[in-house]
Design brief:
The protein has 168 residues and is of the alpha/beta class. It has eight helices and five strands.
């Protein structure tokens, strides 16, 4: 069984886009955690946050990670908050390699400024708030990562090539 590749990083760092290309190139199954949770819940993440709270959403993430860990051969685009829980990092480590996609706050802002589906940024869509939240999460991302790839000023193909080269 091939191990999983778990892509972590702040929202807007490119996890979904990079995971899709990487899964295709490596002939692995693509798992988009947020989409999977929405599908299983029958509602959007924003609605899960509103109706059940963040703690319920985080519990759904953890349960999904445990299932993925058993499956193997997946490229997993993790939600931005996944590495904040020790249990999640342990599940990812047990199931594969963790790759941190590091991106600057300004690039994140430019990528997500016109989106409305990011509950943690509602009413806070600015570079300063993004930078503050990223700084809070950075130690957990760095601690969890087996590999860190800086995505600023790189194409998706360049990021994937660098990742595959470093993993080999």
């Amino acid at each position: 069984m091939k191990k999983n590749l778990f892509l972590i990083g702040f929202m807007g760092c490119g996890k979904s886009t990079i995971a899709a290309l990487l899964a295709e190139e490596l002939q692995m199954k693509l798992v988009e955690m947020d989409e999977q949770i929405e599908q299983e819940a029958g509602m959007s993440i924003a609605d899960i946050f509103e109706q059940y709270g963040e703690a319920d959403f985080r519990a759904r993430e953890t349960a999904l990670l445990h299932r993925i860990r058993q499956e193997g051969n997946c490229v997993v685009s993790c939600g931005g908050g996944v590495p904040m829980r020790v249990e999640n990092v342990q599940a990812m480590r047990a199931g594969g390699r963790i790759i941190y996609l590091k991106t600057s706050p300004q690039v994140i802002y430019e990528r997500i400024k016109d989106t409305t589906n990011r509950p943690l940024l509602n009413d806070h869509m600015n570079v300063e708030y993004i930078a503050t939240l990223m700084e809070q999460r950075k130690p957990k991302y760095e601690e969890a990562a087996d590999l860190t790839i800086v995505t600023d000023q790189k194409t998706v193909a360049e990021v994937c090539k660098e990742m595959v080269d470093k993993l080999n």
